[in-house]
Amino acid sequence: MPLPGSQPGVLRDAFEVLTLQAGYNTNAVLAGSAMLGLAAGVVGVLALLRKRSLVADAIGHATLPGVVLAFLVAVALGGTGRSLPVLLLGAAASGVASVGCIFAILRFTRLREDAAIGIVLGVFFGVGVVLLSVVQDPVNTGGASPAGLHHFIYGQTAAMRAGDAMLMAALAVIAIIAVLVFFKELSLGSFNPDFARVQGYPIGALDAVVLGLVVLVTVAGLQAVGLILVISLLVIPPVTARLCTARLLHLMLIAGVVGVSTGFLGAAVSAVLPRTPAGSVIVLCGGAVFVMSLLVAPKHGAIATAGRRLVQRLRIAGDHFLEAAYDHRVTRRGQTAIPTRTVDAMQKLWGWPAWMRVLVLGRLRRRGLVRVTATGLELTEAGIANGARIARNHKLWEQYLLQYADIAPGHVDWSPDMVEHVLSPQLVAALEAALAEDPEVSP
Amino acid sequence: MTVAYQRKPVLWDVDYDAPARSLVAIVGPNGAGKSTLIKASLGLVPRATGLVEFWGEPFRCVRDRVAYVPQRESVDWTFPVSALDVVCMGRYRRIGWCRPVGRAHRNAAMACLERVGMADLARRQISQLSGGQQQRVFLARALAQEADLYIMDEPFAGVDAATERAIVALLSELRDAGKTALVVHHDLQTVPEYFDQALLLNMRVVASGPVDQVFTQENLQKTYGGKLTLLSEAAEAIARSDMRVR
């Protein structure tokens, strides 16, 4: 069986979808998913900072009984029960009720938030599943068909219409305006609620704004990604953005961009590949972006961290080399040449792999600290000065430990080999002052 | 004033009037209710009984004249804001709702950071500050409020020597400017040096007044001596029963 990607025309399909030429309905799905991603990304930042992301999960699961009850009520009142606004209204109502239950549990018991969320999430979802099985029996619904209600669990993005896309766009605009207007207050309330309360800010109302937005996004996302996965729309973009920035405004921006692009991309992929549920694909796109930024994020990414560590390691190894070469020069009375044989011995002593030797010596050469000669290497003037400084720092710290080790016994195991690389000029001056009378290290 | 958590009273019959224009240390062992006293005064925890007045008025009328410095551990320092952003929070009431932080307010916040010796770290993300620097950011935020009364919860806890000196200098600056400071403090030795007044607390007021009169061997014994005093035994008993605390 050929892979989906190898089918003829997939590339053309993909091009058409991505350039919005795949027809009105597909465009509506793309636009709707992108706008939902935007709204969820921005609101998700608020929820994450207020440490309410898991409440969003409870809200998502708690919408199920609301949907089914709304269906039953609508049927009882003589409708078909298929009106989307009615069902979503029910979802919102039970979502809000679940938040109320969580806070009631926190207020009246000694349970912590995670436990309260677990209870409410499970019980509401359980009630929803039971109700869902009840409405499967036509006797209970007076013959009205509940077909499609189960789509709220996993979502059915393809059912999105232009009107839904407009709704998502409106929601995104509301979320962005709310965030911009209350930016100061929301950030203060999340960072330091006690301080905000003392200042007279209505923390309860600010929390209600945040949770209200979370409920809106959750309910809006039910149709597209379903109640189980909607939490990931709210969580993944903000945490991805958090890896890339430490500034609140940028966090909002990046989370919004991640939300839009994963929403669009996920919907596009599922439009091109047959029988792939868009909701899950959107979430998977978000997950992929998250993993990618774990790797490539500018400061905290794995690659940046590994790079920083490597540079640090090379610097320290280079320092060791300069120090040894300097000592070598001292014992040889000003001989600046270091024969290849000696370099080999040093490499063996420190256990450098071959690549390490290449990188370390290359780095020293580029910095003009050593140069290559016919018989090996040679310290330059700058190299000699550097080696002298490192050797001196080493001695200073050693002397300091010898004299004052009893003052800070916990720090004695900081070997001179480690400390000599981090001594700042101020620290060196302080050490010199402390050891002024010691003849061995006096300049 | 009496305060109870989950029916267990932690402060009983506290009756204290802090003199204006002085530095007051609130001193007592762990669990004496020092932080609770502050939080209950500011309305952060409900009071079972009692009345708290600031300059003869209820707290909500004089919020702008009171600056609160919470315990450093009470917030999440990985929050994505800079030191300057946190200090600007002290100006939010002046700026008002729904308005961005203007240049004038930003400069005022910067000046406060300078007063605590943190101007060159203003742009640093707060998680990259040391504990003492974080504490100084909190102090700068309180300064930015330009209040008359400064209520500080353990500002000296776990700070380096430089920060301790900065706080002490700041306190005497505040005193010289005619302000009042109520400071929860745990280092008995430095109380006479740093403060004018002391409030010895152990679930109730043991003693209060000028430091040289209050800091007697007998009072300190009463405050710290015997962890399980009659009072806390009684509190345990009440917690076990279903009695309401009044």
Task: Give the structure's gist in a few sentences.
The complex is a heterodimer of chains A (443) and B (246). Chain A is an all-alpha fold and 443 residues long. Chain A has helices at residues 10-18, 24-49, 53-76, 84-108, 113-135, 138-141, 151-154, 162-181, 183-191, 193-198, 203-244, 248-272, 278-296, 302-331, 340-350, 354-366, 381-404, 416-419, 425-434, and strands at residues 337-339, 370-372, 376-379.
Keyphrases for this structure?
heterodimer, A: 443 residues, mainly alpha, ABC transporter involved in vitamin B12 uptake, BtuC, Arc Repressor Mutant, subunit A, 2 domains, three-stranded antiparallel beta sheet, B: 246 residues, alpha/beta, Rossmann fold, six-stranded mixed beta sheet, two-stranded antiparallel sheet, 8 strands, 36% helix, globular
Task: Write structural notes for this entry.
The complex is a heterodimer of chains A (443) and B (246). Chain A is mainly α and 443 residues long. Chain A has two domains: 4-296, ABC transporter involved in vitamin B12 uptake, BtuC (Orthogonal Bundle); 304-434, Arc Repressor Mutant, subunit A. Chain A is 74% helix and 2% strand. Chain A contains 19 helices and three strands. In chain A, strands 1-3-2 form a three-stranded antiparallel sheet. In chain A, a hairpin with a 3-residue loop joins strand 2 and strand 3. Chain A is elongated and about 105 Å long. Chain A starts with 9 loop residues before the first helix and ends in a 9-residue tail after the last helix. The model of chain A has no long low-confidence stretch (mean pLDDT 86). Chain B has 246 residues and is α/β, with parallel strands linked by helices. Chain B has one domain: 3-Layer(aba) Sandwich (Rossmann fold). Chain B is built from ten helices and eight strands. The longest helix of chain B has 16 residues, at 161-176. The termini of chain B are close together. The model of chain B has no long low-confidence stretch (mean pLDDT 87). Classes of the chains: A mainly alpha (443), B alpha/beta (246).
